[in-house]
């Protein structure tokens, strides 16, 4: 990274193990997104609520687990006292990615949908609701407003029209 105090500019360059130096403009969107998440994680001054829309965009599927771990590490560890080594941050992401849903702890998942709601004046409107997965602490209140694994089947298995899958011995079928 180079600092230009006159123009108030930081220039980021990637130094590869081979010795090649690449400017940020030549890096993929996914690499830049991953780098931004790393910077957020390392900056103890960033506190409060961090919201992200589909952080997996541009991330290679092989790196999805590392990205989910990195996002998880951004949040405060509730088992430890908040401080410089454990900044007080809450992280909220939205995703449509089955891979992210499969990698996130089921206790941390909330599924968004809309439901009909009658206002005080009798008008019916739609409102957002966030529902936990059945069997998690978030669904423990017993009100029945949760989703089941059957409800989220598209996030747990290959789509019905999948053109490529693995058979039991690991060969492409």
TrEMBL record:
Record-linked Pfam families: AAA_21
InterPro entries in alphabetical order: ATPase_AAA_core, P-loop_NTPase
Top-level lineage group: Bacteria
Domain ATPase AAA-type core: start-end pairs: 16-101
The name this protein goes by in its record: ATPase AAA-type core domain-containing protein
